[in-house]
Amino acid sequence: TILLSLTVFHNIVTETLPQVSDAMPLLGTYFNCIMMMVASSVVLTVVVLNYHHRTAETHVMPMWVRSVFLQWLPWILRMNRPRKKITRKTILMNNRMKELEMKEKVSKSLLANVLDMDDDFRPLTVGGGTFMRVNGNPLENNVSQANHINHNSHGQLGTAPSTPNLHHASSTSQLMQNSACSSNTRELQCILKEIRYMTNRLKLKDEEEEVVSDWKFAAMVIDRFCLITFTTFTIITTVAVLLSAPHIVVE
After folding, report:
1. Which of 50, 130, 181, 199 could form a disulfide with 141 if both were Cys (CB 3.0 to 4.6 A apart)?
2. Measured between alpha carbons, how far is residue 226 from residues 161, 230, 233 in Å?
3. Under 8 Å between Cβ of 60 and 209
4. Cα–Cα distances in Å, from 241 out to 7, 8, 140, 174, 195?
5. What is the rounded CA–CA span in Å between residue 180 and residue 251?
6. How many CB atoms lie within 10 A of CB 216?
7. Residues in a beta bridge with 123
8. What is the mean pLDDT of each run of 10 residues along the chain (251 residues)?
9. Per-residue confidence (pLDDT) for residue 116, from 0 to 100
10. Rounded to an integer, what distance in angstroms lies between the CA atom of residue 170 and that of residue 158?
């Protein structure tokens, strides 16, 4: 609508002006410059709105966008974020930290895999019994089970026929204790799994909010840059047209 109104107004002004020469009058030149500025501002407004409404689920911020619109251009325009001061020293320090993180990424992944394997095979003592984690599942120590079975078998062979009920009762109580320990361990595993899920979800939510904040700040930087650029262009164009007029000052 603005471009259409400027075009119509420019045509009306051109028709009403006297035909003194083939050159375009200064007023027409001024309106052409303003129309070009309005067209550029419309395009950049769409870009600003696009950046403002981007999220972590739809877009991934490239490194050049992060470097230009989050570091160097805000530093040139003297813009700061809440709780984040943007200076040349902080920009160079952040770039150095990112390089170190990229170099240590492989070593950290290997260390995480080793720690996961160590956690899977870590022994666990519950209720006087020794358990071993294998792929995250606790299993009772097979050596203690074998020794217990051998002890019961030797005891049954060496005792009189009048004592099988006693050994049966002791083995039954031992099995009940082991089953109770296993059920408690499964419940603890379920609770730990839920806690890990909630923790990972909160971390993911914080990362998504940080990405959205970065996109919004990039939109603010582009908007500030467009404001300064278009204001400067309008002032320079107006002054140039006024100074080019032959009879701007009437004596």
Report:
1. 130
2. 99, 6, 10
3. no
4. 19, 21, 91, 100, 69
5. 108
6. 14
7. 132
8. 78 70 69 88 94 90 90 89 81 78 66 54 47 46 45 44 53 67 81 88 89 93 94 91 72 51
9. 55
10. 17
Long-range contacts of 103-106 (CB under 8 A, 24+ apart): none
Q: Which residue type does 139 have?
A: L
Q: What is the rounded distance in angstroms from the CA atom of residue 38 to the CA atom of residue 45?
A: 10
Centre a 10 Å sphere on the Cβ of residue 129 and count the other Cβ atoms it contains: 18
Query: Quick one: residue 236, left, alpha or beta (phi over 0 = left, psi -120 to 50 = alpha)?
Result: alpha
What is the Cα–Cα distance from 35 to 2, expressed in whole angstroms? 9
So what's the pLDDT on residue 221? 94
**pTM higher than the cut 0.85:** no
The residue with tokens 């609508």 is: 1
Contact 70, 217 (CB under 8 A): yes
pLDDT of residue 242: 83
Residue with tokens 């979800």: 201
pLDDT at position 175 is 65
Q: Give me the half-sphere count of Cα atoms (radius 13 Å) on the Cβ side of residue 95.
A: 15
Task: Note the pLDDT of residue 128.
Answer: 47
